[in-house]
Amino acid sequence: MASNPFIRALSLTGFDQFARGNGLDPIQMLRQANLPVASLRRPEDILAFRHYCALLELCGQRSNNGLFGLEYGLYQGIDVFGDIFYLIHNTKTIGDALRELRANFVFYNGAAQIDLEVVDGLALLSYRTDEQVIDGLPQAEELACGVGMQLMRTLAGGKWRPEAIMLRHAPIADESVYLQALSIAPTFSAAHTGLLFDACVLAQPLDCANENLYQLIAQHLSGMERLSADEMPGYVRQLLRNLLPSGRATIERVADCMALNPRTLQRRLAQEGTFFQHLLDETRQQLVRNYLQVPTISLTQVAQLLGYADVSTFSRAFHRWFGVSPLEWCRQAGLRRQPLLLQNRLKGRS
User: What is the topology classification, in CATH, of domain 232-343?
Assistant: First the structure.
Protein backbone atom coordinates (compact mmCIF):
# COMPACT_ATOMS: atom_id res chain seq x y z
CA MET A 1 0.00 0.00 0.00
CA ALA A 2 1.25 3.49 -0.82
CA SER A 3 2.31 5.62 2.11
CA ASN A 4 0.57 8.79 3.16
CA PRO A 5 2.02 11.92 4.82
CA PHE A 6 -0.25 11.84 7.89
CA ILE A 7 -0.19 10.40 11.40
CA ARG A 8 -2.71 10.40 14.23
CA ALA A 9 -2.37 12.89 17.07
CA LEU A 10 -2.00 9.83 19.30
CA SER A 11 1.68 10.33 18.44
CA LEU A 12 1.59 13.31 20.84
CA THR A 13 0.86 11.02 23.81
CA GLY A 14 2.55 12.48 26.90
CA PHE A 15 3.98 15.45 24.99
CA ASP A 16 2.70 18.06 27.43
CA GLN A 17 4.41 16.49 30.45
CA PHE A 18 7.58 15.42 28.64
CA ALA A 19 8.14 18.83 27.03
CA ARG A 20 7.69 20.59 30.36
CA GLY A 21 10.17 18.17 31.91
CA ASN A 22 12.68 19.36 29.32
CA GLY A 23 12.08 23.02 30.20
CA LEU A 24 9.84 23.70 27.20
CA ASP A 25 6.42 25.29 26.79
CA PRO A 26 4.48 22.55 24.92
CA ILE A 27 1.87 24.98 23.58
CA GLN A 28 4.52 27.27 22.15
CA MET A 29 6.39 24.33 20.60
CA LEU A 30 3.25 23.01 18.89
CA ARG A 31 2.36 26.40 17.48
CA GLN A 32 5.86 27.00 16.15
CA ALA A 33 5.76 23.58 14.46
CA ASN A 34 2.37 24.50 12.94
CA LEU A 35 0.52 21.77 14.83
CA PRO A 36 -2.93 22.38 16.41
CA VAL A 37 -2.81 22.66 20.19
CA ALA A 38 -6.26 21.07 20.45
CA SER A 39 -4.79 17.81 19.11
CA LEU A 40 -3.33 17.17 22.56
CA ARG A 41 -6.92 16.42 23.60
CA ARG A 42 -7.99 14.73 20.35
CA PRO A 43 -5.82 11.67 19.67
CA GLU A 44 -7.92 10.80 16.60
CA ASP A 45 -6.89 14.02 14.80
CA ILE A 46 -4.58 13.78 11.82
CA LEU A 47 -1.26 15.61 11.67
CA ALA A 48 1.25 16.16 8.91
CA PHE A 49 4.20 13.84 9.51
CA ARG A 50 6.57 16.58 8.34
CA HIS A 51 5.23 18.93 11.00
CA TYR A 52 5.57 16.21 13.64
CA CYS A 53 9.22 15.67 12.68
CA ALA A 54 9.74 19.43 12.74
CA LEU A 55 8.29 19.51 16.26
CA LEU A 56 10.79 16.91 17.48
CA GLU A 57 13.67 18.76 15.83
CA LEU A 58 12.57 22.08 17.32
CA CYS A 59 12.23 20.56 20.80
CA GLY A 60 15.67 18.98 20.54
CA GLN A 61 17.20 22.34 19.65
CA ARG A 62 15.30 24.44 22.20
CA SER A 63 15.91 21.98 25.07
CA ASN A 64 19.55 21.47 24.06
CA ASN A 65 18.79 17.75 24.23
CA GLY A 66 19.95 15.96 21.09
CA LEU A 67 18.20 12.78 22.22
CA PHE A 68 14.80 14.44 22.71
CA GLY A 69 13.11 12.05 20.25
CA LEU A 70 14.71 8.91 21.69
CA GLU A 71 13.94 9.86 25.28
CA TYR A 72 10.41 10.87 24.34
CA GLY A 73 9.88 7.44 22.76
CA LEU A 74 11.16 5.71 25.88
CA TYR A 75 8.80 7.92 27.90
CA GLN A 76 5.78 7.16 25.69
CA GLY A 77 6.34 3.43 25.52
CA ILE A 78 3.29 1.30 24.79
CA ASP A 79 0.85 4.15 25.52
CA VAL A 80 1.49 5.56 22.04
CA PHE A 81 -0.15 2.49 20.42
CA GLY A 82 -3.58 3.15 21.92
CA ASP A 83 -6.07 0.35 21.23
CA ILE A 84 -3.57 -1.48 19.04
CA PHE A 85 -1.61 -2.50 22.13
CA TYR A 86 -4.63 -4.27 23.63
CA LEU A 87 -5.02 -6.14 20.34
CA ILE A 88 -1.41 -7.31 20.11
CA HIS A 89 -1.19 -8.06 23.84
CA ASN A 90 -3.95 -10.64 23.48
CA THR A 91 -2.28 -12.68 20.73
CA LYS A 92 -0.66 -16.04 21.50
CA THR A 93 3.03 -15.27 21.05
CA ILE A 94 5.39 -12.31 20.76
CA GLY A 95 5.77 -13.08 17.06
CA ASP A 96 2.00 -12.93 16.61
CA ALA A 97 1.94 -9.62 18.50
CA LEU A 98 4.58 -8.02 16.28
CA ARG A 99 2.87 -9.25 13.12
CA GLU A 100 -0.43 -7.74 14.30
CA LEU A 101 1.38 -4.49 15.00
CA ARG A 102 2.81 -4.52 11.48
CA ALA A 103 -0.63 -5.14 9.96
CA ASN A 104 -2.48 -2.51 12.02
CA PHE A 105 0.10 0.26 12.31
CA VAL A 106 -1.59 2.03 9.37
CA PHE A 107 -4.53 2.93 11.63
CA TYR A 108 -2.30 5.46 13.37
CA ASN A 109 0.60 6.16 11.03
CA GLY A 110 0.34 6.45 7.26
CA ALA A 111 3.82 7.89 6.81
CA ALA A 112 5.84 4.93 8.06
CA GLN A 113 5.77 1.14 8.07
CA ILE A 114 6.86 -1.46 10.58
CA ASP A 115 8.51 -4.60 9.20
CA LEU A 116 9.47 -7.90 10.83
CA GLU A 117 12.05 -10.12 9.13
CA VAL A 118 13.86 -13.27 10.27
CA VAL A 119 17.24 -14.18 8.77
CA ASP A 120 19.72 -16.78 10.10
CA GLY A 121 18.11 -16.96 13.53
CA LEU A 122 17.95 -13.17 14.00
CA ALA A 123 14.78 -11.08 13.91
CA LEU A 124 14.75 -7.48 12.71
CA LEU A 125 11.92 -5.22 13.86
CA SER A 126 12.37 -2.16 11.65
CA TYR A 127 10.78 1.24 11.07
CA ARG A 128 10.95 2.94 7.70
CA THR A 129 9.47 5.84 5.80
CA ASP A 130 9.22 6.30 2.05
CA GLU A 131 10.37 9.91 2.36
CA GLN A 132 14.05 9.96 3.23
CA VAL A 133 14.78 13.70 3.44
CA ILE A 134 12.67 15.38 6.14
CA ASP A 135 13.93 17.81 8.76
CA GLY A 136 13.71 16.02 12.09
CA LEU A 137 13.35 12.52 10.61
CA PRO A 138 16.34 11.20 12.63
CA GLN A 139 14.53 12.35 15.79
CA ALA A 140 11.38 10.50 14.69
CA GLU A 141 13.34 7.33 13.90
CA GLU A 142 15.06 7.40 17.27
CA LEU A 143 11.67 7.94 18.92
CA ALA A 144 10.41 4.81 17.13
CA CYS A 145 13.38 2.84 18.48
CA GLY A 146 12.64 4.07 22.00
CA VAL A 147 9.01 2.97 21.69
CA GLY A 148 10.13 -0.36 20.22
CA MET A 149 12.46 -0.97 23.16
CA GLN A 150 9.65 -0.39 25.66
CA LEU A 151 7.27 -2.57 23.67
CA MET A 152 9.68 -5.49 23.62
CA ARG A 153 10.40 -5.10 27.33
CA THR A 154 6.65 -5.22 27.99
CA LEU A 155 6.15 -8.32 25.85
CA ALA A 156 9.35 -10.24 26.64
CA GLY A 157 10.15 -9.00 30.14
CA GLY A 158 11.95 -6.03 31.63
CA LYS A 159 15.39 -7.64 31.26
CA TRP A 160 15.06 -8.07 27.48
CA ARG A 161 17.93 -6.59 25.46
CA PRO A 162 18.40 -6.49 21.69
CA GLU A 163 21.49 -7.83 19.97
CA ALA A 164 21.82 -4.46 18.24
CA ILE A 165 20.04 -1.14 17.79
CA MET A 166 20.48 0.19 14.27
CA LEU A 167 20.01 3.77 13.09
CA ARG A 168 20.24 4.93 9.47
CA HIS A 169 21.73 8.29 10.40
CA ALA A 170 24.94 9.47 12.02
CA PRO A 171 24.91 10.26 15.77
CA ILE A 172 23.05 13.47 16.64
CA ALA A 173 24.54 13.54 20.15
CA ASP A 174 27.61 12.14 21.87
CA GLU A 175 27.63 8.34 21.61
CA SER A 176 28.14 8.01 25.36
CA VAL A 177 24.72 9.64 25.87
CA TYR A 178 23.13 6.95 23.68
CA LEU A 179 24.80 4.28 25.78
CA GLN A 180 23.49 5.86 28.95
CA ALA A 181 19.92 6.05 27.60
CA LEU A 182 19.78 2.59 26.00
CA SER A 183 22.38 0.53 27.89
CA ILE A 184 23.71 -0.47 24.47
CA ALA A 185 25.65 1.51 21.87
CA PRO A 186 23.68 1.83 18.61
CA THR A 187 25.09 1.01 15.19
CA PHE A 188 24.96 4.23 13.17
CA SER A 189 24.67 4.79 9.41
CA ALA A 190 23.07 1.33 9.14
CA ALA A 191 20.97 0.08 6.23
CA HIS A 192 17.85 0.01 8.45
CA THR A 193 16.46 1.66 11.56
CA GLY A 194 15.33 -0.96 14.02
CA LEU A 195 16.03 -3.59 16.66
CA LEU A 196 17.92 -6.82 15.98
CA PHE A 197 17.32 -9.72 18.40
CA ASP A 198 17.32 -13.50 18.78
CA ALA A 199 14.43 -14.89 16.73
CA CYS A 200 13.63 -17.51 19.38
CA VAL A 201 11.91 -14.72 21.33
CA LEU A 202 9.15 -14.67 18.69
CA ALA A 203 7.90 -18.08 19.86
CA GLN A 204 7.60 -16.94 23.48
CA PRO A 205 3.95 -17.22 24.60
CA LEU A 206 2.08 -14.27 26.06
CA ASP A 207 0.57 -15.23 29.41
CA CYS A 208 -2.24 -12.67 29.19
CA ALA A 209 -3.57 -13.82 25.79
CA ASN A 210 -7.38 -13.68 25.69
CA GLU A 211 -9.00 -14.84 22.46
CA ASN A 212 -12.39 -13.25 23.21
CA LEU A 213 -10.83 -9.89 24.03
CA TYR A 214 -8.65 -10.13 20.93
CA GLN A 215 -11.70 -10.67 18.70
CA LEU A 216 -13.56 -7.79 20.38
CA ILE A 217 -10.72 -5.32 19.82
CA ALA A 218 -10.13 -6.57 16.25
CA GLN A 219 -13.80 -5.90 15.51
CA HIS A 220 -13.48 -2.40 16.98
CA LEU A 221 -10.41 -1.62 14.87
CA SER A 222 -12.10 -2.88 11.72
CA GLY A 223 -14.53 0.02 11.98
CA MET A 224 -11.80 2.64 12.20
CA GLU A 225 -10.56 4.71 9.29
CA ARG A 226 -7.13 3.64 8.09
CA LEU A 227 -4.60 6.29 7.11
CA SER A 228 -4.49 5.11 3.53
CA ALA A 229 -3.26 7.11 0.56
CA ASP A 230 -6.69 7.34 -1.10
CA GLU A 231 -8.50 9.02 1.81
CA MET A 232 -7.52 12.62 1.09
CA PRO A 233 -11.14 13.94 1.10
CA GLY A 234 -11.71 12.41 4.53
CA TYR A 235 -8.66 14.14 5.96
CA VAL A 236 -9.78 17.47 4.51
CA ARG A 237 -13.23 17.06 6.08
CA GLN A 238 -11.71 16.35 9.48
CA LEU A 239 -9.44 19.38 9.29
CA LEU A 240 -12.37 21.54 8.18
CA ARG A 241 -14.41 20.46 11.22
CA ASN A 242 -11.50 21.52 13.43
CA LEU A 243 -10.78 24.80 11.65
CA LEU A 244 -14.28 26.15 10.88
CA PRO A 245 -15.06 27.66 14.33
CA SER A 246 -11.87 29.74 14.12
CA GLY A 247 -12.87 31.16 10.72
CA ARG A 248 -9.60 29.86 9.20
CA ALA A 249 -10.97 27.05 7.03
CA THR A 250 -9.32 28.21 3.83
CA ILE A 251 -7.59 25.96 1.33
CA GLU A 252 -4.32 27.68 2.21
CA ARG A 253 -4.75 26.88 5.91
CA VAL A 254 -5.85 23.29 5.27
CA ALA A 255 -2.95 22.72 2.86
CA ASP A 256 -0.56 24.19 5.41
CA CYS A 257 -1.83 21.79 8.08
CA MET A 258 -1.13 18.94 5.66
CA ALA A 259 2.36 20.26 4.79
CA LEU A 260 1.23 20.57 1.16
CA ASN A 261 0.91 23.56 -1.11
CA PRO A 262 -2.65 24.51 -2.21
CA ARG A 263 -2.11 23.46 -5.83
CA THR A 264 -0.95 20.00 -4.77
CA LEU A 265 -3.97 19.64 -2.50
CA GLN A 266 -6.34 20.68 -5.29
CA ARG A 267 -4.71 18.22 -7.68
CA ARG A 268 -4.94 15.32 -5.22
CA LEU A 269 -8.59 16.11 -4.50
CA ALA A 270 -9.30 16.23 -8.24
CA GLN A 271 -7.77 12.77 -8.55
CA GLU A 272 -10.33 11.63 -5.95
CA GLY A 273 -13.16 13.21 -7.98
CA THR A 274 -13.87 16.21 -5.77
CA PHE A 275 -12.62 19.71 -4.98
CA PHE A 276 -12.08 21.89 -1.91
CA GLN A 277 -15.16 24.11 -2.13
CA HIS A 278 -17.41 21.07 -2.50
CA LEU A 279 -15.92 19.51 0.66
CA LEU A 280 -16.25 22.82 2.53
CA ASP A 281 -19.93 23.16 1.60
CA GLU A 282 -20.60 19.50 2.33
CA THR A 283 -18.98 19.73 5.77
CA ARG A 284 -20.90 22.89 6.65
CA GLN A 285 -24.18 21.30 5.57
CA GLN A 286 -23.55 18.25 7.75
CA LEU A 287 -22.64 20.38 10.76
CA VAL A 288 -25.50 22.87 10.43
CA ARG A 289 -28.11 20.09 10.56
CA ASN A 290 -26.71 19.09 13.96
CA TYR A 291 -26.40 22.64 15.27
CA LEU A 292 -29.99 23.56 14.40
CA GLN A 293 -31.21 20.59 16.43
CA VAL A 294 -30.11 22.48 19.57
CA PRO A 295 -32.62 25.28 20.21
CA THR A 296 -30.38 27.12 22.68
CA ILE A 297 -27.71 27.83 20.04
CA SER A 298 -28.50 31.16 18.38
CA LEU A 299 -28.18 31.67 14.64
CA THR A 300 -25.28 34.04 15.33
CA GLN A 301 -23.47 31.23 17.17
CA VAL A 302 -24.28 28.76 14.38
CA ALA A 303 -22.81 31.17 11.84
CA GLN A 304 -19.64 31.51 13.93
CA LEU A 305 -19.28 27.74 14.37
CA LEU A 306 -19.46 27.36 10.60
CA GLY A 307 -16.81 30.02 10.05
CA TYR A 308 -19.03 32.83 8.76
CA ALA A 309 -18.40 36.46 9.69
CA ASP A 310 -22.10 37.28 10.17
CA VAL A 311 -25.61 35.80 10.10
CA SER A 312 -26.57 37.33 6.75
CA THR A 313 -23.67 35.63 4.93
CA PHE A 314 -24.56 32.35 6.62
CA SER A 315 -28.25 32.74 5.76
CA ARG A 316 -27.49 33.31 2.08
CA ALA A 317 -25.32 30.17 1.98
CA PHE A 318 -28.01 28.19 3.81
CA HIS A 319 -30.66 29.28 1.30
CA ARG A 320 -28.36 28.22 -1.55
CA TRP A 321 -27.96 24.75 0.00
CA PHE A 322 -31.55 24.04 1.09
CA GLY A 323 -33.74 26.52 -0.79
CA VAL A 324 -35.20 28.01 2.41
CA SER A 325 -34.06 30.16 5.34
CA PRO A 326 -32.67 28.51 8.51
CA LEU A 327 -35.83 29.37 10.49
CA GLU A 328 -38.11 27.99 7.75
CA TRP A 329 -36.01 24.82 7.61
CA CYS A 330 -36.44 24.39 11.36
CA ARG A 331 -40.20 24.97 11.06
CA GLN A 332 -40.51 22.35 8.29
CA ALA A 333 -38.46 19.92 10.38
CA GLY A 334 -40.69 20.47 13.40
CA LEU A 335 -37.91 22.07 15.42
CA ARG A 336 -38.74 24.88 17.83
CA ARG A 337 -36.01 27.47 18.31
CA GLN A 338 -36.11 29.60 21.45
CA PRO A 339 -33.40 31.95 22.66
CA LEU A 340 -31.71 30.76 25.84
CA LEU A 341 -32.83 33.87 27.74
CA LEU A 342 -36.46 33.23 26.83
CA GLN A 343 -36.16 29.58 27.89
CA ASN A 344 -34.77 30.59 31.26
CA ARG A 345 -37.63 33.05 31.77
CA LEU A 346 -40.20 30.39 30.92
CA LYS A 347 -38.59 27.97 33.37
CA GLY A 348 -38.65 30.65 36.06
CA ARG A 349 -42.43 31.04 35.68
CA SER A 350 -43.15 27.33 35.98
Answer: Arc Repressor Mutant, subunit A (1.10.10)
